[in-house]
């Protein structure tokens, strides 16, 4: 039986029109006439038996069904494009790994180590997309994800990389201007917060034996990398994972006013679908990453 699949031309025309909310701009992008785009979309709607666009005078907008279909079509076209580029680039050898990763983890810990992986596996390419949430692998293009959490991920295998040790850091110049003999004195420097962890400072002060403090005041930032840069700019004191600021501490651009670490209840995991436990390309990356994580953990041991 022939598959019930629209032509790639119709799907491309629909995706472009949905993204631009305009048949004219879709035609310009695809180097087609507007009438050609309209015809492709009309053919697609006739096949589906449902209107994908609301047409009001000379303007168009996605219908409710069109919004859902546009999102799915875009994901499948992206996956098809990635697969095509992969086979063109590798000519049947090696492969490509689509990796979702936490932004700051990717930039501060993973990417600086990737040259070692490429030296061992020159025919494997790793494409990294930042993503922090849990998702269903079957609904995405991803082969694996580096995730911060408990390691529980439906339908996936999780390998523990390492835990998280949070420490306060600030600029040495800021600390010189505002000495802090006791942990509770850090509130004078302005506390810098990660938006997703509103109670992190409260927990750290409790671990440091300081209480009855207003640890909620201070600006909030979305990413740890923003916290690090704010601390470097003498805007306050940040509470960040130790592994993210090793280079800054080593160079002296940041200091730890109190080396009182707070162990997080969660950790960093590499997760991937159970169905890919035998995939050779992915397993090459898994083995290498677990080795890197083990080396890092050994560096933290006294």
Automatic annotation (TrEMBL):
UniProt keyword annotations, A-Z: DNA-binding, Transcription, Transcription regulation
InterPro entries, per database record: LysR-type_TF_proteobact-type, LysR_HTH_N, LysR_subst-bd, WH-like_DNA-bd_sf, WH_DNA-bd_sf
One GO BP: DNA-templated transcription
HTH lysR-type domain sequence ranges: 6-63
GO MF annotations, alphabetized: DNA-binding transcription factor activity; sequence-specific DNA binding
SUPFAM superfamilies: Periplasmic binding protein-like II, Winged helix' DNA-binding domain
Pfam families: HTH_1, LysR_substrate
Entry's family note: Belongs to the LysR transcriptional regulatory family.
Protein name in UniProt: Transcriptional regulator, LysR family
The species this protein was found in: Pseudogulbenkiania ferrooxidans 2002
């Amino acid at each position: 039986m022939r598959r019930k699949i629209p032509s790639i031309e119709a799907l491309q025309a629909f995706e472009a029109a949905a993204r631009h909310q305009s048949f004219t701009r879709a035609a310009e992008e695809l180097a087609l006439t507007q009438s050609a785009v309209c015809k492709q979309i009309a053919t697609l709607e006739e096949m589906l038996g449902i209107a994908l666009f609301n047409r009001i005078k000379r303007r168009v907008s996605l219908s409710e069904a069109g919004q859902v279909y546009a999102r799915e079509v875009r994901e499948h076209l992206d996956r098809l494009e990635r697969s095509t580029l992969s086979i063109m680039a590798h000519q049947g050898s090696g492969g490509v790994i689509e990796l979702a990763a936490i932004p700051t983890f990717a930039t501060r810990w993973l990417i600086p180590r990737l040259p070692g992986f490429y030296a061992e596996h020159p025919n494997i390419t790793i494409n990294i997309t930042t993503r922090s949430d849990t998702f269903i692998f079957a609904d995405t293009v991803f082969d694996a994800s580096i995730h911060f959490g408990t390691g529980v991920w439906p339908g996936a295998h999780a390998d523990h990389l390492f835990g998280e040790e949070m420490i306060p850091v600030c600029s040495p110049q800021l600390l010189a201007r505002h000495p802090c003999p006791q942990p509770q004195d850090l509130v004078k420097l302005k506390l810098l917060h990660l938006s997703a962890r509103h109670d992190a400072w409260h927990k750290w002060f409790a671990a440091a034996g300081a209480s009855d403090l207003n640890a909620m005041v201070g600006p909030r930032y979305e990413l740890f990398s923003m916290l690090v840069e704010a601390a470097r700019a003498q805007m306050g004191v940040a509470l960040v994972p130790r592994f993210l600021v090793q280079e800054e501490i080593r160079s002296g651009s940041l200091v730890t006013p109190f080396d009182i670490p707070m162990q997080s209840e969660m950790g960093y995991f590499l997760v991937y679908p159970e169905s890919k436990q035998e995939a050779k390309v992915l397993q090459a990356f898994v083995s290498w990453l677990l080795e890197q994580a083990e080396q890092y953990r050994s560096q933290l041991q006294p």
